[in-house]
Design goal:
The complex is a heterodimer of chains A (647) and B (259).
Chain A lengths: L1 H4 L33 H8 L4 H25 L7 H5 L1 H6 L8 H21 L4 E3 H21 L25 H7 L1 H20 L8 E3 H18 L4 E5 L2 E5 L6 H26 L3 H24 L6 H26 L6 H23 L6 H16 L7 H26 L15 H26 L4 H16 L2 H15 L8 H27 L2 H9 L4 H16 L1 H14 L11 H8 L11 H29 L5
Antiparallel strand pairs in A: 1-2, 3-4
Chain B lengths: L2 H8 L1 H5 L2 E12 L2 E12 L3 E5 L6 H8 L7 E6 L2 E2 L4 H10 E4 L11 H11 L5 H15 L14 H13 L5 E5 L7 H16 L3 E5 L3 H7 L2 E6 L2 E6 L1 H6 L4 H10 L1
Parallel strand pairs in B: 3-8, 3-9, 6-7, 7-8
Antiparallel strand pairs in B: 1-2, 1-4, 4-5, 9-10
Helix pairs in contact in B: 5-6, 5-7, 6-7, 7-8
Chain lengths: 647, 259
């Protein structure tokens, strides 16, 4: 047991009740500082240790330079029409969302930014980055730019009309090397400034560079601030469509309707971060934290159905039908659940719960067979009542526990009715195309909804697959193996086209909702396998200890087994999350105007940019990469926090 | 050989006490291998029974049968008047009356020491959180490590972890405590701190069944010793009887190897 005593980081560090510490006190857990090796010796030992080693090094470096040169020439070629991307930025992110209603997009984004800021202020302990590493980043960036400037082939020479000059063999005539270097003065300046800053920091704080830490929040804030500030200064140019006319005004900064919202977003982010910090400093985390979490859970629904769609609620109908239904279910259901949680109910409680479940299922069967009409909302509500009733015996006992269970019930049914009402209410925002949202926003929406729904489902499937009851095990195994054996694209096509054919008259499903369901079912099967791996990592002793203190099976799973299993499965779960996020690009194939489809089909069909695809695809790749890389980095941080890597 | 005879030999007073654990002809099989062969024994209220025997003798299996971590195939086990059958309610009732301490501690690594102790009282005994925490602090005081309440099991030494495990079992206010080789995974210098806690517990009148190789503890604390080999009870007696003039040859051989 002695090895357990060595400094394993506290799993508590994500907990709310930890004292606020100085950044310098909370650096990343890393190996102890080793004495510096002179660069020459390092090169000899690691890159040129033997003849083979040296040859491999030289060949690899030459290959890397060749590849980098190819990429640079591709990206910065005079054939590239980056105006296609610049002009269509809004199209890429929100498709045909009407200009006059665009403030709704900004309000949605602002809501998310504010939540992110408050959360960061409340919980984030990102620690700091050693100043030495910041210097190394600056040096690497400067060197990279300088290398790129030299590597990229000289630019084309242009005639008076701005067309590239061609020689006799129809090849582009290029500048001389010296002329090209002179033309790239701005890049040189950037490289030299970065190198100078890097060197100055490196040598300036040489003695202390390992002990001086720059908070990550400051680094991120500075980077975002510089990016937003550059909108006001740097001449990115103004491109767009005005009354159907293509408009290009290079040499000026972007329009106000771009600059102002982004500046507001930045200010909002900084402000809410400080707000979160202040709340933390007042020790109100325990009260504000749950509210923020509820805000996150609600945010996809609120942004999508309230702000972006602006529901045209029929208040008469709401008062006549929706509210009475909610009151009835919350009240009557609450009474039933209150009775079912009374301490003396015993076995009869379970019998009543099963009865409720059968009744709820009957309504569904009736719906499919067309026996009697019923609102879908009512069918769903009956099912949720039955599920709560099944769980009720676990909350039997003291009045406070029963009250909390009832509060959970009212909150759940309220949220459910709210969401269903909002889904069923038409939008006032009129969009020119039949799809309401598109581009990156639809990609993000599908990804978030899929992940929110497939996590609980995946955990349940994993538990079922490891259950002692054969019926659960068989059903779950069959489900997982079938779903994993079918290509995702097949499932998506099935759900987007065929689901509505199978639904009985009167029931229908929007294409996007059907696609989310398909994604969820597929992703849950994979998540289940990852969670199952974690479940297997929980030792038999943990089960025995939980049994020995008298926990029921459900309690053992919820409080002992799952928390440990999920912790172990964080790396594969994040891998699956990233995969799901990237797989949303398959939406393009089934005809939804997602991020990829805009770049691949919509932009190349505009008369101004006929066939211009590569630029858009590069940008799409870059955006996907940024999101995936961020998730990957964040999971590494969580892993380090939980001390997984050191077991 | 009947245990009740030996009990009578110990003292009239002990024989008069209430039965806490009664085992009658308990059989346990792992496939074709019979791990327990008709084990019959009675543990009285407030009695401390130490079970000895070479490894593989079935002593751990037996003690784990008593709170149904292992299922026995033959015979009866009655704990505090409740018979162990497949009825889930009986099993849950017995488990909440019987505390168990494991060789490998089996603390919940993702919970703090305090949460380890309060988990079952809150969810099984339905205690209020504040009350459970107050009780947990009192128990940590009793096992001598109140200052470790906020730490995680991984940050404690083996001896401290085992004391937390004892506190966790005691938090359910059990009628019986079972110890399955509680000191076997500990470094020598930590064994004493755990044994001291167990001695204090025995003196407080807890009914205890202890599987251990600590002969000093057996000699000092036990009311009775049970020697097992090959899944059978070979000899039962007081510590004086055992260490001074054991009757069975197998007992003599075992004691000569271990002492």
């Amino acid at each position: 047991m002695a090895e357990l005593e060595t400094s394993r980081p506290t799993p508590l560090s994500l907990g709310p009740d930890q004292v606020d510490v100085d950044y310098a006190g909370e650096r990343e857990a890393g190996p102890p500082i080793q004495p510096e090796v002179p660069p020459g010796q390092w090169l000899r030992e690691n890159l040129f240790g033997s003849v083979t080693n040296g040859v491999v090094t030289v060949v690899s470096v030459l290959f890397a330079l060749w590849a980098a040169r190819g990429l640079l020439n591709f990206v910065f070629s005079e054939e590239r029409q980056w105006a296609a991307v610049r002009t269509n930025l809004r199209l890429l992110f929100t498709q045909a969302y009407p200009e006059s209603q665009y403030v709704r997009v900004w309000v949605s984004l602002g809501l998310l930014v504010a939540l992110a800021g408050v959360s960061a202020g409340l919980w984030a302990r990102w620690g700091g980055v050693p100043l030495g590493r910041v210097a190394r980043w600056a040096l690497a960036a400067g060197a990279g730019i300088a290398l790129g400037v030299v590597l990229r082939e000289p630019g084309a020479r242009f005639d008076e009309e701005g067309e590239p000059l061609l020689d006799a063999a129809n090849q582009v005539v290029r500048q001389s090397f010296g002329q090209a270097m002179a033309d790239r003065t701005l890049w040189w300046v950037a490289a030299v400034v970065l190198l100078a800053v890097g060197l100055a920091v490196w040598f300036g704080v040489r003695e202390h560079r390992r002990s001086v830490y720059v908070p990550v929040t400051v680094l991120v804030g500075t980077a975002l601030g510089l990016a937003v500030g550059s909108l006001w200064v740097v001449p990115y140019g103004h491109y767009g469509f005005a009354n159907g006319e293509f408009l290009a005004e290079p040499g000026r900064t972007v329009v106000l309707s771009t600059k102002v919202p982004w500046t507001v977003m930045f200010v909002l982010l900084v402000g809410t971060t400080y707000l979160g910090r202040w709340v933390r400093s007042m020790d109100w985390q325990s009260r504000v934290g749950p509210l923020v979490n509820i805000g996150w859970v609600l945010s996809p629904f609120v942004t999508y159905w309230v702000i972006l769609r602006d529901p045209a609620l029929d208040y008469g109908y709401v008062a006549r039908v929706d509210l009475p239904l909610f009151v009835a279910f919350a009240g009557l259901g609450g009474l039933v659940l209150w009775a079912l949680t009374s301490p003396g109910i015993g076995e009869s409680g379970r019998v009543i719960a099963v009865g409720l479940l059968l009744l709820a299922l009957l309504h569904w069967v009736a719906g499919f067979a067309g026996w009697y009409p019923m609102l879908q909302k009512v069918r769903i509500s009956f099912l949720v009542v039955a599920l709560f009733a099944l769980a009720a015996p676990n909350f039997a006992g003291g009045a406070s526990k029963r009250r909390r269970f009832l509060a959970g019930w009212v909150l759940t049914i309220g949220l459910l009715h709210y969401v269903i009402t909002m889904i069923n209410t038409p939008s006032t925002v009129v969009t020119p195309s039949d799809t309401f949202l598109g581009g990156f926003s639809v990609t993000l929406f599908v990804a978030v909804m899929t992940l929110m729904l497939s996590f609980p489902l995946g955990v349940l499937l994993a538990l079922a697959r490891t259950s002692r009851l054969p019926i659960f095990r068989v059903l779950s195994t069959v489900y997982i193996e079938v779903l994993r054996g079918v290509p995702l694209i097949t499932i998506l096509i099935f759900f987007s086209v065929m689901v509505n054919l199978f639904l009985p008259g009167g029931m229908s499903m929007a294409e996007l909702a059907a696609v989310v369901v398909g994604f969820t079912l597929f992703s849950a099967a994979y998540l289940a396998e990852n969670v199952r791996g974690g479940l297997q990592a929980v030792g038999r002793g943990q089960y025995e200890a939980a049994d020995a203190v008298g926990l029921t099976n459900v309690q053992r799973t919820a409080f002992v087994v799952l928390p440990q299993a999920l912790r172990v499965s964080i790396p594969p779960l994040v891998g699956q999350t990233i995969a799901t996020f990237k797989e949303t690009s398959l939406l393009a194939i089934i005809g939804i105007f997602d991020f990829l489809r805009i770049a691949n089909s919509v932009i190349p069909s505009q008369t101004e940019f006929l066939g211009v695809k590569r630029e858009g695809l590069l940008v799409v790749s870059a955006v996907y990469w940024i999101f995936s890389f961020t998730m990957s980095k964040y999971s590494q941080r969580i892993e380090r926090r939980l001390g997984l890597g050191e077991r | 050989m009947s245990i009740n005879d030996a009990t009578a030999a110990v003292s009239e007073e002990l024989a008069a006490r209430q039965d806490m654990i009664v085992c009658r002809g308990v059989d346990k099989y792992y496939g074709d291998f019979q791990a327990l062969k008709g084990v019959t024994a009675t543990v009285k209220e407030r009695e401390v029974v130490v079970v000895l025997g070479p490894s593989g003798s079935g002593k751990s299996t037996w003690i784990r049968c008593i709170n149904r971590l292992e299922v026995h195939q033959g015979g009866d086990i009655v704990v505090d008047g409740v018979e162990l059958t497949n009825d889930l309610r009986n099993i849950e009732r017995i488990r909440s009356e019987v505390g168990m301490v494991f060789q490998q501690f089996n603390l919940f690594p993702h919970l703090s020491v305090l949460d380890n102790i309060t988990l079952a009282p809150i969810w099984v005994r339905r205690k209020a959180k504040a009350e459970a925490e107050e009780q947990a602090m009192a128990l940590l005081e009793r096992v001598g490590i109140p200052e470790q309440a906020a730490k995680y099991p991984g940050q404690l030494s083996g001896g401290q972890q085992q004391r937390v495990a004892i506190a966790r079992a005691l938090a359910m206010e059990p009628r019986v405590m079972l110890f399955d080789e509680p000191t076997s995974a500990l470094d020598p210098e930590m064994i004493k701190e755990v044994l001291d806690v167990m001695k204090e517990l025995a003196q407080s009148g807890m009914t205890m069944m202890v599987v251990t190789h600590e002969m000093g503890f057996a000699r000092e604390v036990a009311d009775r010793l049970i020697f097992m080999e090959g899944g059978e009870i070979v000899e039962v007696g007081t510590p004086e009887h055992f260490f001074n003039n054991p009757t069975e040859d197998r007992t003599k051989l075992f004691l000569s190897q271990i002492l």
